[in-house]
Prior knowledge:
The longest helix of chain A has 16 residues, at 172-187. By secondary structure, chain A is an alpha+beta fold. Chain A is built from six helices and 13 strands. In chain A, the strands form three sheets. In chain A, strands 3, 4, 5, 6, 7, 8, 9, 10 and 11 form a nine-stranded mixed sheet that branches. The first copy, chain A, has helices at residues 15-25, 79-91, 126-135, 172-187, 203-214, 220-229; strands at residues 7-8, 13-14, 35-46, 49-56, 66-67, 70-72, 97-104, 115-123, 139-145, 157-159, 165-166, 233-239, 249-253. Chains A and B meet through α1 and β7 of A and α1 and β7 of B. The structure holds a DNA duplex.
Amino acid sequence: MTYKHRVDKSLGVTRAEAERRFLDAYDPESYARPSVAVDVALVAVREDALSTLTVLRTEHPFRRMHALPGGFVQIDESLDRAAERVLEEKAALRNVYLEQLYTFGHPKRDPRTRVISVSYFALVDPARFEECARTSPEVSVCRLSVPWAGETGGPVKLSRTDGAAVRLAFDHADILGMAVRRLRGKLEYTPIGFQLLPDHFTLLELQRVHETILGRPLEKNSFRRRMLASGQLEATGESQRGVGHRPPELYRFARRSAT
Amino acid sequence: MTYKHRVDKSLGVTRAEAERRFLDAYDPESYARPSVAVDVALVAVREDALSTLTVLRTEHPFRRMHALPGGFVQIDESLDRAAERVLEEKAALRNVYLEQLYTFGHPKRDPRTRVISVSYFALVDPARFEECARTSPEVSVCRLSVPWAGETGGPVKLSRTDGAAVRLAFDHADILGMAVRRLRGKLEYTPIGFQLLPDHFTLLELQRVHETILGRPLEKNSFRRRMLASGQLEATGESQRGVGHRPPELYRFARRSAT
DNA sequence: GAAATAGTGTCTTTAAGACAGTATGTG
DNA sequence: CACATACTGTCTTAAAGACACTATTTC
Protein backbone atom coordinates (compact mmCIF):
# COMPACT_ATOMS: atom_id res chain seq x y z
CA MET A 1 0.00 0.00 0.00
CA THR A 2 0.97 3.65 -0.14
CA TYR A 3 0.72 3.89 3.62
CA LYS A 4 4.42 4.32 4.33
CA HIS A 5 4.88 7.12 1.87
CA ARG A 6 2.05 9.38 2.92
CA VAL A 7 2.97 12.43 4.93
CA ASP A 8 1.78 12.87 8.49
CA LYS A 9 0.67 16.51 8.44
CA SER A 10 0.99 17.07 12.17
CA LEU A 11 4.71 16.35 12.16
CA GLY A 12 5.90 16.92 8.64
CA VAL A 13 7.44 13.44 8.51
CA THR A 14 6.25 10.15 7.02
CA ARG A 15 3.86 8.06 9.09
CA ALA A 16 6.40 5.32 9.40
CA GLU A 17 8.90 7.77 10.88
CA ALA A 18 6.29 9.22 13.25
CA GLU A 19 5.43 5.72 14.38
CA ARG A 20 9.08 4.86 14.90
CA ARG A 21 9.57 7.94 17.08
CA PHE A 22 6.50 7.06 19.10
CA LEU A 23 7.71 3.53 19.68
CA ASP A 24 11.13 4.70 20.81
CA ALA A 25 9.51 6.95 23.39
CA TYR A 26 6.99 4.33 24.53
CA ASP A 27 7.44 3.27 28.11
CA PRO A 28 6.01 -0.14 28.89
CA GLU A 29 6.60 0.38 32.62
CA SER A 30 4.04 3.17 32.83
CA TYR A 31 1.15 1.03 34.08
CA ALA A 32 0.79 -2.06 36.26
CA ARG A 33 0.93 -5.27 34.31
CA PRO A 34 -0.13 -8.76 35.27
CA SER A 35 2.10 -11.78 34.90
CA VAL A 36 1.19 -14.36 32.29
CA ALA A 37 1.61 -18.08 32.78
CA VAL A 38 0.72 -21.16 30.82
CA ASP A 39 -0.66 -24.26 32.51
CA VAL A 40 -1.04 -27.55 30.73
CA ALA A 41 -3.79 -30.03 31.50
CA LEU A 42 -2.28 -33.32 30.42
CA VAL A 43 -4.87 -35.97 29.80
CA ALA A 44 -4.34 -39.67 29.25
CA VAL A 45 -6.48 -42.77 29.55
CA ARG A 46 -5.08 -45.52 31.72
CA GLU A 47 -6.84 -48.62 32.99
CA ASP A 48 -10.20 -47.36 31.75
CA ALA A 49 -9.89 -44.13 33.69
CA LEU A 50 -8.94 -40.59 32.84
CA SER A 51 -5.67 -39.60 34.36
CA THR A 52 -3.50 -36.55 34.49
CA LEU A 53 0.01 -35.61 35.43
CA THR A 54 0.69 -33.23 38.29
CA VAL A 55 3.82 -31.65 39.70
CA LEU A 56 4.40 -31.19 43.40
CA ARG A 57 5.01 -27.53 44.13
CA THR A 58 8.25 -26.82 45.95
CA GLU A 59 7.61 -23.10 46.34
CA HIS A 60 4.92 -20.99 47.90
CA PRO A 61 2.12 -20.40 47.26
CA PHE A 62 0.46 -23.81 47.62
CA ARG A 63 3.82 -25.35 48.48
CA ARG A 64 3.68 -29.17 48.64
CA MET A 65 0.39 -29.25 46.82
CA HIS A 66 -0.11 -30.74 43.39
CA ALA A 67 -0.39 -28.45 40.40
CA LEU A 68 -0.58 -28.72 36.65
CA PRO A 69 2.76 -28.34 34.89
CA GLY A 70 3.00 -24.63 34.23
CA GLY A 71 5.29 -21.65 34.18
CA PHE A 72 5.59 -18.04 33.21
CA VAL A 73 5.61 -17.01 29.58
CA GLN A 74 8.99 -15.64 28.58
CA ILE A 75 9.00 -12.17 27.12
CA ASP A 76 9.95 -13.29 23.63
CA GLU A 77 8.29 -16.66 23.24
CA SER A 78 4.85 -17.38 21.83
CA LEU A 79 2.16 -18.93 24.01
CA ASP A 80 2.28 -22.22 22.12
CA ARG A 81 6.03 -22.32 22.48
CA ALA A 82 5.76 -21.60 26.22
CA ALA A 83 3.36 -24.51 26.61
CA GLU A 84 5.75 -26.80 24.76
CA ARG A 85 8.67 -25.64 26.85
CA VAL A 86 6.80 -26.13 30.13
CA LEU A 87 5.80 -29.60 29.04
CA GLU A 88 9.38 -30.46 28.30
CA GLU A 89 10.84 -28.88 31.43
CA LYS A 90 8.32 -30.19 33.91
CA ALA A 91 7.23 -33.44 32.35
CA ALA A 92 9.98 -34.29 29.86
CA LEU A 93 7.39 -34.62 27.12
CA ARG A 94 7.84 -33.57 23.49
CA ASN A 95 5.68 -33.84 20.43
CA VAL A 96 2.36 -34.22 22.12
CA TYR A 97 -0.98 -33.04 20.84
CA LEU A 98 -1.35 -29.57 22.33
CA GLU A 99 -4.20 -27.13 21.95
CA GLN A 100 -5.04 -23.84 23.60
CA LEU A 101 -7.96 -24.23 25.97
CA TYR A 102 -9.05 -21.11 27.83
CA THR A 103 -7.54 -18.16 29.62
CA PHE A 104 -8.20 -17.86 33.32
CA GLY A 105 -7.85 -14.41 34.74
CA HIS A 106 -9.65 -13.94 38.00
CA PRO A 107 -7.69 -11.23 39.86
CA LYS A 108 -7.32 -13.38 42.98
CA ARG A 109 -6.59 -16.71 41.37
CA ASP A 110 -2.95 -16.47 42.46
CA PRO A 111 -2.26 -15.00 45.92
CA ARG A 112 1.19 -13.65 44.95
CA THR A 113 0.15 -11.11 42.42
CA ARG A 114 -2.04 -10.89 39.39
CA VAL A 115 -1.33 -13.92 37.23
CA ILE A 116 -3.29 -14.65 34.11
CA SER A 117 -3.06 -18.25 33.00
CA VAL A 118 -3.40 -19.29 29.40
CA SER A 119 -4.31 -22.93 29.72
CA TYR A 120 -3.63 -25.69 27.23
CA PHE A 121 -4.69 -29.24 27.03
CA ALA A 122 -2.43 -32.01 25.88
CA LEU A 123 -3.21 -35.59 24.95
CA VAL A 124 -0.68 -38.35 25.41
CA ASP A 125 -0.24 -42.07 25.27
CA PRO A 126 -0.16 -42.94 29.01
CA ALA A 127 2.95 -45.09 28.52
CA ARG A 128 4.80 -41.86 27.91
CA PHE A 129 4.05 -40.33 31.24
CA GLU A 130 4.54 -43.44 33.30
CA GLU A 131 8.25 -43.24 32.59
CA CYS A 132 8.27 -39.56 33.45
CA ALA A 133 6.73 -40.25 36.85
CA ARG A 134 9.43 -42.88 37.51
CA THR A 135 12.30 -40.49 36.75
CA SER A 136 11.23 -37.32 38.56
CA PRO A 137 9.92 -37.63 42.12
CA GLU A 138 7.85 -34.40 42.03
CA VAL A 139 5.73 -35.78 39.24
CA SER A 140 2.72 -37.95 39.96
CA VAL A 141 0.04 -39.48 37.85
CA CYS A 142 -3.41 -38.91 39.28
CA ARG A 143 -6.69 -40.49 38.52
CA LEU A 144 -9.37 -38.10 37.53
CA SER A 145 -13.08 -38.37 38.21
CA VAL A 146 -15.66 -36.16 36.62
CA PRO A 147 -18.63 -35.35 38.85
CA TRP A 148 -20.84 -34.14 36.01
CA ALA A 149 -22.36 -35.67 32.91
CA GLY A 150 -22.03 -34.61 29.30
CA GLU A 151 -20.71 -31.12 28.78
CA THR A 152 -22.11 -29.54 31.91
CA GLY A 153 -18.69 -28.43 33.10
CA GLY A 154 -17.18 -27.68 36.48
CA PRO A 155 -14.11 -28.78 38.41
CA VAL A 156 -12.99 -32.41 38.51
CA LYS A 157 -11.72 -34.51 41.39
CA LEU A 158 -8.29 -36.06 41.59
CA SER A 159 -7.02 -39.04 43.49
CA ARG A 160 -3.73 -40.87 43.86
CA THR A 161 -3.24 -44.45 42.80
CA ASP A 162 -3.90 -45.54 46.40
CA GLY A 163 -7.28 -43.78 46.25
CA ALA A 164 -6.42 -40.80 48.48
CA ALA A 165 -7.93 -37.52 47.31
CA VAL A 166 -5.55 -34.96 45.86
CA ARG A 167 -6.25 -31.24 46.10
CA LEU A 168 -4.94 -29.09 43.33
CA ALA A 169 -3.34 -25.68 43.72
CA PHE A 170 -4.88 -22.51 42.29
CA ASP A 171 -7.89 -23.02 40.03
CA HIS A 172 -6.28 -26.03 38.39
CA ALA A 173 -9.23 -28.31 39.08
CA ASP A 174 -11.31 -25.92 36.98
CA ILE A 175 -8.75 -25.96 34.20
CA LEU A 176 -8.85 -29.76 34.13
CA GLY A 177 -12.64 -29.63 34.16
CA MET A 178 -12.59 -27.34 31.17
CA ALA A 179 -10.17 -29.71 29.42
CA VAL A 180 -12.50 -32.67 29.93
CA ARG A 181 -15.49 -30.69 28.74
CA ARG A 182 -13.67 -29.58 25.60
CA LEU A 183 -12.42 -33.09 24.97
CA ARG A 184 -15.94 -34.51 25.25
CA GLY A 185 -17.16 -31.88 22.84
CA LYS A 186 -14.46 -32.69 20.33
CA LEU A 187 -15.18 -36.40 20.42
CA GLU A 188 -18.61 -35.75 18.97
CA TYR A 189 -17.07 -34.76 15.68
CA THR A 190 -13.43 -35.95 15.72
CA PRO A 191 -11.85 -39.28 16.49
CA ILE A 192 -9.24 -37.43 18.56
CA GLY A 193 -8.77 -40.45 20.77
CA PHE A 194 -5.81 -41.47 18.57
CA GLN A 195 -3.69 -39.03 20.45
CA LEU A 196 -4.14 -41.09 23.59
CA LEU A 197 -3.01 -44.34 22.02
CA PRO A 198 0.19 -45.77 20.58
CA ASP A 199 0.83 -45.47 16.83
CA HIS A 200 -1.04 -48.64 16.05
CA PHE A 201 -4.24 -49.56 17.80
CA THR A 202 -7.35 -51.64 17.39
CA LEU A 203 -10.83 -50.22 17.00
CA LEU A 204 -11.83 -51.68 20.36
CA GLU A 205 -8.97 -49.88 22.08
CA LEU A 206 -10.10 -46.65 20.46
CA GLN A 207 -13.66 -47.31 21.53
CA ARG A 208 -12.60 -47.87 25.15
CA VAL A 209 -10.78 -44.55 25.10
CA HIS A 210 -13.84 -42.75 23.80
CA GLU A 211 -16.04 -44.46 26.37
CA THR A 212 -13.72 -43.45 29.19
CA ILE A 213 -13.69 -39.82 28.12
CA LEU A 214 -17.41 -39.62 27.55
CA GLY A 215 -18.23 -41.60 30.66
CA ARG A 216 -20.76 -43.82 28.93
CA PRO A 217 -20.74 -47.03 26.88
CA LEU A 218 -20.85 -46.80 23.11
CA GLU A 219 -22.42 -49.16 20.65
CA LYS A 220 -19.77 -51.27 18.88
CA ASN A 221 -21.11 -51.40 15.37
CA SER A 222 -22.05 -47.76 15.03
CA PHE A 223 -18.76 -46.72 16.59
CA ARG A 224 -16.92 -48.74 13.93
CA ARG A 225 -19.03 -47.30 11.15
CA ARG A 226 -18.47 -43.77 12.35
CA MET A 227 -14.72 -44.16 12.77
CA LEU A 228 -14.19 -45.79 9.40
CA ALA A 229 -16.44 -43.24 7.68
CA SER A 230 -14.45 -40.37 9.21
CA GLY A 231 -11.63 -41.14 6.81
CA GLN A 232 -9.09 -40.45 9.52
CA LEU A 233 -8.29 -44.08 10.14
CA GLU A 234 -6.14 -46.22 7.95
CA ALA A 235 -5.89 -49.99 8.16
CA THR A 236 -2.28 -51.11 8.49
CA GLY A 237 -2.93 -54.61 7.16
CA GLU A 238 -1.34 -56.01 10.31
CA SER A 239 -3.19 -57.73 13.11
CA GLN A 240 -2.66 -57.96 16.81
CA ARG A 241 -1.25 -61.40 17.61
CA GLY A 242 -1.47 -63.93 20.39
CA VAL A 243 -4.66 -62.64 21.95
CA GLY A 244 -6.55 -65.89 22.49
CA HIS A 245 -9.23 -65.07 19.96
CA ARG A 246 -9.66 -63.79 16.44
CA PRO A 247 -6.94 -61.17 15.95
CA PRO A 248 -8.17 -57.61 15.43
CA GLU A 249 -6.84 -55.45 12.64
CA LEU A 250 -4.49 -52.65 13.61
CA TYR A 251 -5.24 -49.11 12.47
CA ARG A 252 -3.27 -45.93 12.39
CA PHE A 253 -4.06 -42.26 12.21
CA ALA A 254 -4.32 -41.02 8.61
CA ARG A 255 -3.04 -37.49 8.17
CA ARG A 256 -5.44 -35.53 6.04
CA SER A 257 -5.76 -32.12 4.43
CA ALA A 258 -9.07 -30.75 5.78
CA THR A 259 -9.79 -29.63 9.35
CA MET B 1 -8.72 -29.70 55.77
CA THR B 2 -6.02 -29.75 58.41
CA TYR B 3 -3.67 -27.96 56.03
CA LYS B 4 -3.48 -24.67 57.93
CA HIS B 5 -2.63 -26.27 61.24
CA ARG B 6 0.20 -28.48 60.18
CA VAL B 7 3.67 -27.34 61.10
CA ASP B 8 6.26 -26.53 58.46
CA LYS B 9 9.36 -28.20 59.86
CA SER B 10 11.87 -26.05 58.02
CA LEU B 11 10.72 -22.90 59.77
CA GLY B 12 8.94 -24.01 62.90
CA VAL B 13 5.82 -22.05 61.93
CA THR B 14 2.51 -23.06 60.40
CA ARG B 15 2.38 -23.40 56.66
CA ALA B 16 -0.05 -20.56 56.42
CA GLU B 17 2.40 -18.31 58.24
CA ALA B 18 5.31 -19.45 56.06
CA GLU B 19 3.25 -18.77 52.98
CA ARG B 20 2.32 -15.30 54.21
CA ARG B 21 5.98 -14.43 54.81
CA PHE B 22 6.87 -15.67 51.36
CA LEU B 23 4.18 -13.57 49.74
CA ASP B 24 5.25 -10.44 51.59
CA ALA B 25 8.77 -10.88 50.26
CA TYR B 26 7.67 -11.74 46.74
CA ASP B 27 8.78 -9.21 44.15
CA PRO B 28 6.63 -9.17 41.03
CA GLU B 29 9.09 -6.83 39.28
CA SER B 30 11.81 -9.47 39.17
CA TYR B 31 11.20 -10.64 35.62
CA ALA B 32 9.99 -9.06 32.39
CA ARG B 33 6.27 -9.27 31.97
CA PRO B 34 4.09 -8.81 28.91
CA SER B 35 1.10 -6.50 28.81
CA VAL B 36 -2.31 -8.05 28.56
CA ALA B 37 -5.14 -6.60 26.51
CA VAL B 38 -8.63 -7.66 25.60
CA ASP B 39 -10.01 -7.18 22.11
CA VAL B 40 -13.64 -7.70 21.27
CA ALA B 41 -14.86 -8.97 17.91
CA LEU B 42 -18.36 -7.57 17.70
CA VAL B 43 -20.50 -9.40 15.21
CA ALA B 44 -23.91 -8.43 13.89
CA VAL B 45 -25.96 -9.33 10.86
CA ARG B 46 -27.20 -6.38 8.81
CA GLU B 47 -28.79 -6.48 5.39
CA ASP B 48 -27.97 -10.15 4.94
CA ALA B 49 -24.28 -9.57 5.60
CA LEU B 50 -21.99 -10.05 8.55
CA SER B 51 -20.80 -6.79 9.96
CA THR B 52 -18.53 -5.64 12.72
CA LEU B 53 -17.73 -2.49 14.60
CA THR B 54 -14.28 -0.94 14.45
CA VAL B 55 -12.65 2.00 16.16
CA LEU B 56 -10.27 4.36 14.40
CA ARG B 57 -6.95 4.44 16.22
CA THR B 58 -5.81 7.89 17.27
CA GLU B 59 -2.46 6.74 18.66
CA HIS B 60 0.51 4.89 17.29
CA PRO B 61 1.02 2.14 16.43
CA PHE B 62 -1.30 1.73 13.45
CA ARG B 63 -2.55 5.31 13.98
CA ARG B 64 -5.56 6.12 11.77
CA MET B 65 -6.19 2.48 11.01
CA HIS B 66 -9.27 0.59 12.10
CA ALA B 67 -9.03 -1.78 15.05
CA LEU B 68 -11.34 -3.90 17.16
CA PRO B 69 -12.48 -2.20 20.35
CA GLY B 70 -9.87 -3.19 22.89
CA GLY B 71 -7.81 -2.05 25.81
CA PHE B 72 -5.43 -3.13 28.50
CA VAL B 73 -6.63 -5.31 31.34
CA GLN B 74 -6.56 -3.39 34.61
CA ILE B 75 -4.57 -4.95 37.38
CA ASP B 76 -7.59 -5.78 39.53
CA GLU B 77 -10.32 -6.57 37.04
CA SER B 78 -11.20 -9.95 35.61
CA LEU B 79 -10.85 -10.65 31.89
CA ASP B 80 -14.61 -10.81 31.41
CA ARG B 81 -15.01 -7.54 33.23
CA ALA B 82 -12.29 -5.93 31.12
CA ALA B 83 -14.10 -7.01 27.96
CA GLU B 84 -17.35 -5.53 29.26
CA ARG B 85 -15.63 -2.29 30.19
CA VAL B 86 -13.93 -1.94 26.81
CA LEU B 87 -17.22 -2.55 25.09
CA GLU B 88 -18.85 0.16 27.11
CA GLU B 89 -15.99 2.66 26.80
CA LYS B 90 -15.34 2.23 23.11
CA ALA B 91 -18.69 1.25 21.76
CA ALA B 92 -21.17 2.35 24.42
CA LEU B 93 -22.62 -1.16 24.52
CA ARG B 94 -23.87 -2.96 27.62
CA ASN B 95 -25.51 -6.31 28.21
CA VAL B 96 -24.41 -8.01 25.06
CA TYR B 97 -23.68 -11.69 24.61
CA LEU B 98 -19.97 -11.98 25.30
CA GLU B 99 -17.79 -15.06 25.24
CA GLN B 100 -14.06 -15.62 25.49
CA LEU B 101 -12.64 -16.63 22.13
CA TYR B 102 -8.90 -17.24 22.02
CA THR B 103 -5.69 -15.73 23.31
CA PHE B 104 -3.29 -14.35 20.76
CA GLY B 105 0.27 -14.11 21.90
CA HIS B 106 2.76 -13.92 19.06
CA PRO B 107 5.72 -11.95 20.45
CA LYS B 108 5.68 -9.47 17.56
CA ARG B 109 1.95 -8.97 17.19
CA ASP B 110 2.26 -5.49 18.68
CA PRO B 111 5.30 -3.41 17.69
CA ARG B 112 5.34 -1.42 20.96
CA THR B 113 6.16 -4.20 23.31
CA ARG B 114 4.93 -7.68 24.10
CA VAL B 115 1.17 -7.55 24.27
CA ILE B 116 -0.92 -10.66 24.74
CA SER B 117 -4.50 -10.25 23.63
CA VAL B 118 -7.33 -12.23 25.17
CA SER B 119 -9.99 -11.95 22.52
CA TYR B 120 -13.73 -12.11 23.01
CA PHE B 121 -16.59 -12.26 20.63
CA ALA B 122 -19.81 -10.39 21.16
CA LEU B 123 -23.14 -10.73 19.41
CA VAL B 124 -25.50 -7.80 19.08
CA ASP B 125 -28.66 -6.70 17.44
CA PRO B 126 -27.30 -4.43 14.66
CA ALA B 127 -29.77 -1.68 15.58
CA ARG B 128 -27.72 -1.20 18.73
CA PHE B 129 -24.50 -0.38 17.01
CA GLU B 130 -25.94 1.82 14.33
CA GLU B 131 -26.71 4.44 16.97
CA CYS B 132 -23.24 4.08 18.41
CA ALA B 133 -21.67 4.81 15.00
CA ARG B 134 -23.82 7.93 14.72
CA THR B 135 -22.71 9.34 18.08
CA SER B 136 -18.96 8.73 18.04
CA PRO B 137 -17.01 9.61 14.89
CA GLU B 138 -14.13 7.13 15.51
CA VAL B 139 -16.53 4.22 15.34
CA SER B 140 -17.49 2.67 12.04
CA VAL B 141 -19.55 -0.28 11.05
CA CYS B 142 -17.79 -2.46 8.49
CA ARG B 143 -19.06 -5.17 6.27
CA LEU B 144 -17.26 -8.43 6.66
CA SER B 145 -16.58 -11.02 4.01
CA VAL B 146 -15.30 -14.47 4.73
CA PRO B 147 -12.96 -15.88 2.08
CA TRP B 148 -13.26 -19.48 3.25
CA ALA B 149 -16.03 -22.04 3.56
CA GLY B 150 -17.24 -23.94 6.58
CA GLU B 151 -14.87 -23.93 9.51
CA THR B 152 -11.62 -23.75 7.58
CA GLY B 153 -10.55 -20.57 9.35
CA GLY B 154 -8.26 -17.70 8.48
CA PRO B 155 -8.48 -13.93 8.39
CA VAL B 156 -11.56 -12.14 7.04
CA LYS B 157 -11.84 -9.08 4.83
CA LEU B 158 -13.50 -5.82 5.80
CA SER B 159 -15.04 -3.10 3.72
CA ARG B 160 -16.78 0.20 4.38
CA THR B 161 -20.39 0.85 3.42
CA ASP B 162 -19.16 2.48 0.20
CA GLY B 163 -17.32 -0.72 -0.70
CA ALA B 164 -13.75 0.46 -0.01
CA ALA B 165 -11.53 -2.14 1.61
CA VAL B 166 -10.58 -1.58 5.25
CA ARG B 167 -7.30 -2.81 6.65
CA LEU B 168 -7.28 -3.77 10.30
CA ALA B 169 -4.49 -3.02 12.76
CA PHE B 170 -2.48 -5.76 14.49
CA ASP B 171 -3.77 -9.31 13.94
CA HIS B 172 -7.35 -8.20 14.29
CA ALA B 173 -8.41 -9.71 10.97
CA ASP B 174 -7.35 -13.08 12.40
CA ILE B 175 -9.32 -12.47 15.57
CA LEU B 176 -12.43 -11.72 13.54
CA GLY B 177 -11.78 -14.81 11.45
CA MET B 178 -11.59 -16.91 14.58
CA ALA B 179 -14.85 -15.33 15.78
CA VAL B 180 -16.65 -16.28 12.59
CA ARG B 181 -15.28 -19.81 12.70
CA ARG B 182 -16.38 -20.27 16.29
CA LEU B 183 -19.78 -18.80 15.53
CA ARG B 184 -20.28 -21.19 12.62
CA GLY B 185 -19.31 -24.07 14.85
CA LYS B 186 -21.74 -23.03 17.54
CA LEU B 187 -24.62 -22.73 15.09
CA GLU B 188 -24.41 -26.46 14.42
CA TYR B 189 -25.69 -27.18 17.89
CA THR B 190 -27.13 -23.95 19.29
CA PRO B 191 -29.66 -21.48 17.93
CA ILE B 192 -27.35 -18.67 19.07
CA GLY B 193 -28.66 -16.42 16.31
CA PHE B 194 -31.13 -14.98 18.88
CA GLN B 195 -28.39 -12.79 20.15
CA LEU B 196 -28.26 -11.01 16.82
CA LEU B 197 -31.96 -10.22 16.72
CA PRO B 198 -34.40 -8.05 18.68
CA ASP B 199 -36.33 -9.61 21.57
CA HIS B 200 -39.09 -10.89 19.35
CA PHE B 201 -38.40 -12.34 15.96
CA THR B 202 -39.88 -14.64 13.37
CA LEU B 203 -38.43 -18.00 12.42
CA LEU B 204 -37.63 -16.69 8.96
CA GLU B 205 -35.60 -13.82 10.41
CA LEU B 206 -33.69 -16.32 12.52
CA GLN B 207 -33.13 -18.50 9.48
CA ARG B 208 -31.74 -15.56 7.48
CA VAL B 209 -29.30 -14.83 10.30
CA HIS B 210 -28.10 -18.42 10.35
CA GLU B 211 -27.75 -18.45 6.59
CA THR B 212 -25.70 -15.26 6.63
CA ILE B 213 -23.33 -16.62 9.24
CA LEU B 214 -22.95 -20.00 7.62
CA GLY B 215 -22.70 -18.53 4.15
CA ARG B 216 -25.12 -21.03 2.64
CA PRO B 217 -28.90 -21.41 2.25
CA LEU B 218 -30.78 -23.61 4.70
CA GLU B 219 -33.84 -25.71 4.11
CA LYS B 220 -36.91 -24.06 5.65
CA ASN B 221 -38.78 -27.01 7.05
CA SER B 222 -35.86 -28.75 8.66
CA PHE B 223 -34.63 -25.45 10.08
CA ARG B 224 -38.02 -24.95 11.74
CA ARG B 225 -38.08 -28.48 13.08
CA ARG B 226 -34.60 -28.15 14.47
CA MET B 227 -35.22 -24.79 16.12
CA LEU B 228 -38.50 -25.83 17.70
CA ALA B 229 -37.03 -29.13 18.85
CA SER B 230 -34.13 -27.32 20.54
CA GLY B 231 -36.51 -26.15 23.25
CA GLN B 232 -34.81 -22.77 23.29
CA LEU B 233 -37.56 -20.97 21.44
CA GLU B 234 -40.84 -19.92 22.91
CA ALA B 235 -43.85 -18.75 20.93
CA THR B 236 -45.10 -15.41 22.17
CA GLY B 237 -48.61 -15.87 20.83
CA GLU B 238 -48.23 -12.59 18.97
CA SER B 239 -47.82 -12.22 15.24
CA GLN B 240 -46.04 -9.77 13.06
CA ARG B 241 -48.61 -7.43 11.51
CA GLY B 242 -49.09 -5.57 8.27
CA VAL B 243 -46.75 -7.65 6.17
CA GLY B 244 -48.88 -8.16 3.09
CA HIS B 245 -49.25 -11.88 3.66
CA ARG B 246 -50.09 -14.38 6.33
CA PRO B 247 -48.52 -13.01 9.52
CA PRO B 248 -45.73 -15.08 11.03
CA GLU B 249 -45.72 -15.96 14.69
CA LEU B 250 -43.21 -14.12 16.88
CA TYR B 251 -40.83 -16.14 19.03
CA ARG B 252 -38.55 -15.26 21.87
CA PHE B 253 -35.54 -16.82 23.47
CA ALA B 254 -36.49 -19.26 26.24
CA ARG B 255 -34.05 -19.25 29.14
CA ARG B 256 -33.28 -22.78 30.12
CA SER B 257 -31.32 -24.69 32.74
CA ALA B 258 -28.97 -26.94 30.73
CA THR B 259 -25.96 -25.81 28.72
C1' DG C 1 -14.07 -77.75 19.99
C1' DA C 2 -14.53 -74.24 23.77
C1' DA C 3 -13.62 -69.55 24.75
C1' DA C 4 -13.27 -64.99 23.43
C1' DT C 5 -13.32 -61.16 20.80
C1' DA C 6 -13.56 -59.60 15.60
C1' DG C 7 -16.31 -58.23 12.34
C1' DT C 8 -20.99 -58.27 9.54
C1' DG C 9 -26.06 -58.12 8.47
C1' DT C 10 -30.16 -56.11 9.12
C1' DC C 11 -34.19 -54.16 11.36
C1' DT C 12 -35.65 -50.08 13.72
C1' DT C 13 -35.44 -45.26 14.97
C1' DT C 14 -34.37 -40.58 14.30
C1' DA C 15 -33.14 -36.52 11.97
C1' DA C 16 -32.40 -34.13 7.86
C1' DG C 17 -33.28 -32.97 2.86
C1' DA C 18 -36.57 -32.18 -0.78
C1' DC C 19 -40.51 -30.42 -2.22
C1' DA C 20 -45.42 -30.01 -2.78
C1' DG C 21 -49.56 -28.68 -0.78
C1' DT C 22 -52.66 -25.90 2.23
C1' DA C 23 -53.44 -21.58 5.27
C1' DT C 24 -54.10 -16.75 6.10
C1' DG C 25 -52.95 -12.27 6.18
C1' DT C 26 -52.78 -7.50 2.95
C1' DG C 27 -53.98 -4.96 -1.03
C1' DC D 1 -59.14 -12.73 -5.73
C1' DA D 2 -54.11 -12.22 -6.40
C1' DC D 3 -50.03 -12.28 -3.99
C1' DA D 4 -46.77 -13.48 -0.72
C1' DT D 5 -45.12 -15.77 2.84
C1' DA D 6 -46.64 -19.04 6.90
C1' DC D 7 -47.08 -23.41 8.02
C1' DT D 8 -47.79 -28.63 7.31
C1' DG D 9 -47.51 -33.33 5.18
C1' DT D 10 -44.93 -36.76 3.51
C1' DC D 11 -41.55 -39.23 0.75
C1' DT D 12 -36.69 -40.06 0.61
C1' DT D 13 -32.01 -40.47 2.48
C1' DA D 14 -28.49 -40.93 5.86
C1' DA D 15 -26.88 -42.00 10.20
C1' DA D 16 -27.29 -44.08 14.63
C1' DG D 17 -29.03 -47.65 17.98
C1' DA D 18 -30.04 -52.43 18.92
C1' DC D 19 -28.91 -56.83 18.60
C1' DA D 20 -28.14 -61.24 16.51
C1' DC D 21 -25.22 -63.76 13.69
C1' DT D 22 -20.84 -65.49 11.54
C1' DA D 23 -15.49 -65.54 11.57
C1' DT D 24 -11.05 -66.61 13.29
C1' DT D 25 -7.71 -67.05 16.34
C1' DT D 26 -5.52 -69.49 20.95
C1' DC D 27 -5.59 -73.13 24.12
